[in-house]
Each structure stands twice: as C-alpha cells, then as structure tokens.
Amino acid sequence: MRYIDDDLKNKTILITGGAGFIGANLAFYFQENHPEAHVVVLDSFRSGETLSNGNLKSFGHFKNLIGFRGEVISGDINDKALLAKLEGDYDFDYIFHEAAISDTTALEQDLMIRTNLNAYKDLLDMAVRQGANMIYASSGATYGDASSPQRVGVEAPQNVYGFSKLMMDHLSRDYMKREKIGIVGLRYFNVYGPREFFKNKTASMVVQFGHQILAGKNPRLFEGSDKIVRDFIYIEDIIQANVLAMHPKENGIYNVGTGKARSFQSIVDSLQKELGTALPCEYIPNPFVGRYQFHTEADIGSTMRGLGYKPRYELEDGIKAYIPEIKRLFEEEVK
Ligand SMILES: NC(=O)c1ccc[n+]([C@@H]2O[C@H](COP(=O)([O-])OP(=O)(O)OC[C@H]3O[C@@H](n4cnc5c(N)ncnc54)[C@H](O)[C@@H]3O)[C@@H](O)[C@H]2O)c1
C-alpha cells in the first residue's frame, strides 16, 4: 500500500541499516511504490563478529535484499571517511536512519553509544548540510519501566540500548530548535514481520514461537507470560509511520505502536490457532528481571495528530498476514 502521493521522481533516499529487518522493508516499499526514487542502502553486513552476549555485532544479511534493484554499500556508520565520501557522491533528499546496535541485551556501552548516538550526530550534520529530511529509529526501550501508556517525555531506560536511543532523541530536539530540515524520531515498540528472521535470537518472539510450534516443540514462555504485555506492532504499520514522517505536520518524536498491550501468551495462542496446533506450553524463569519491560503500551495520540498515522494491524491480523512467511522460513532456513 502506498502512503503518500508524491512520486519521489529525482529524489535520492539513503537507508542506513538497509540490510536489516526494518531498513530492508523500507527499501522494498520504495522500490514497489515509488520506482522512480533512487534508493541507496548502507549497511555493515554481518561478519561473524560477536558481542560478549554471544549475539552478532551486526545482523545485516544479503538475503533481506534479494530482489532489490537499488544501490547497496557495505560500510560502517562510525567510519567518518565513508560518510564524507557519501556526502560528496550523493545529494540526499531523505535519510531513513535504521542502522544501530539493535540488540537490547548488548552490554558494550562504548560501542552502543558510539554507534547509536555519536554516528547519528554525524549523519544529522550531513542531513543539515544537504538539506535532507532525517527520519530515524528511536525505541520504546527509552521508556524502560515507565508506567503505561507510555508518553513522550516520561522515560526511564533500563539498559544502555534504551539510554542511547533516548540520547538520540534529546540531541534531535536540539537540532529541531535551530535547524530547518525535517527531523522525526520514531519510537518503535515491539516490531515483528517478514525480514526479521536473520536477527537470530533477537528476532521477535512471533517468529521464534512460530518455528518452535512448526518443529512440534512445546512453546517455551517466561513464567507469568499471560501478564507480561507489550505493544506488538506489525512491520507494515512501521513502514506507514516512516513514510508519513517524510511530510510531518510537525517535527517531533513519536511513538509507533498499536496503542494496545498484548501478552506473550496471546502470541502463542494466536499462532497455535493459525497453525492448527494445541501444544502444551512450558514456563521457564525469566533471566532478565530488573532490565526487562513487563508492560508497554504506546500512547499514539500525538502520532495520529502529528503524522496522520493510524495502525492497521491488531496482533491477530499481523500474525495471520505473517504466517505464510513463517512457514516458508521454516521450510527453507530452519529445517
Ligand atoms: N525491531 C524492533 O522491534 C525495534 C524496536 C525499536 C527500535 N528499533 C530500531 O529500529 C532500527 C532497525 O532495527 P531492526 O529491527 O531492523 O534491526 P536490525 O539489526 O535488523 O537492523 C539494523 C541494521 O543496522 C546494521 N548496522 C549495525 N551497526 C552498523 C554500523 N555500525 N554501520 C552500518 N550499519 C550497521 C546491521 O547490520 C543491521 O542490518 C534500529 O535502530 C533499532 O534499534 C527496532
């Protein structure tokens, strides 16, 4: 579905983190709906390098871009020489900034702040010099255990990831006051959908439970999962928010969720209904207590007013739309 009328002819779009989950979906949105736009993807594709928690340092994967016909550049946003070359080579109109250490459980504070915050400042300065609009990924993790519904302005991050995103928002507000470009920060809540599979263990529990069930294994949930609730949002609605953010009524920082809190148990129940199974669930202790969000629910009032955003997918709709891809991945990548 196309969300804006502008054909984007002669426009150049940079998508950082474009070989990752959300960035790759954005790349295909523009290819399919605005084929005259020139789309450049920048990503530090996976190298096998891991963080101390055992997860990959970057999750970019070529398979997320199979079928993409725009330009692809492998590189690190921390590389100032690369950013200077990009600035010389292109005249960007829009920058969708998705590149980040996206792993909320990563413990490397130096790398997290350098990559998520300091490199973002370099990109923001480039956007100002080029007169490009900046649309960047913030996160619901900025809220930590702040009470629901979460509203912009009341944050309490519980990990360095959430802290780095909150600092991006503070920096952006400062630029919004003195610069003329469009700047929109989007606080995504828990996103799920096609092209997340290569995030491995950091992919959403929707795909992970889906594959446990397809393997005939009992779904393993944390104890109390009927009461651990999150605002789970389908990728299509994330794309909608990003595209609407190209022409905001007002620069700002906006929540992107459904506005509804749903339990992890309801994910499993909905998957089992769609897959026609009735496997018993197993409950295991939650190792992340103390740095774990037990209740998230986005207040999306200002997003609806400021961007014209209206979520189209409830949890059951998103899962239903996602099932064929969950099955395909299971056949082609898991088995
Ligand atoms: N998926 C979610 O639920 C969610 C929720 C809130 C916020 N976010 C944010 O949205 C953005 C996209 O997340 P995603 O889910 O697509 O994650 P992802 O890990 O799939 O995508 C991030 C991409 O950035 C790339 N990258 C990492 N470090 C880089 C670097 N130094 N230079 C260049 N590229 C680099 C990775 O290779 C990866 O392809 C991230 O900023 C993330 O923090 C995601």
**What is the total tally of β strands?**
13
* CATH class descriptor name: Alpha Beta
> In the residues, how many domains can be counted?
1
> Which molecules are bound besides the chains?
nicotinamide-adenine-dinucleotide
Mean pLDDT metric = 97
| Terminal residue distance | 32 Å
- The secondary-structure element order is EHEEHEHEHEEHEEEHEEHEHH
Strand content: 15-25%
CATH fold title: Rossmann fold
What CATH architecture would you give? 3-Layer(aba) Sandwich
Give me the side-by-side strand order of the main sheet: 3-2-1-4-5-6-11
State the helicity in percent bands.
Answer: 25-40%
- Secondary structure class reads alpha/beta
Overall morphology: globular
User: Uncertain regions: pLDDT < 50 for 5+ in a row?
Assistant: none
Radius of gyration: 19 Å
Could you give a short account of the major beta sheet? 7 strands, parallel
- Under CATH, the homologous superfamily reads NAD(P)-binding Rossmann-like Domain
What do these coordinates show?
The protein is of the alpha/beta class. The chain has one domain: Rossmann fold (3-Layer(aba) Sandwich), CATH 3.40.50. The chain has nine helices and 13 strands. Strands 3-2-1-4-5-6-11 form a seven-stranded parallel sheet, with helices on both faces. α1 crosses α6 (235-244) and α5 crosses α9. The structure holds nicotinamide-adenine-dinucleotide. Residues 17, 19-23, 43-44, 58-60, 76-78, 98-102, 115, 137, 139-140, 188, 190-191, 199 line the site of nicotinamide-adenine-dinucleotide. Nicotinamide-adenine-dinucleotide binds next to α1, β5 and β7. InterPro entries: Epimerase_deHydtase, Heptose_epim, NAD(P)-bd_dom_sf.
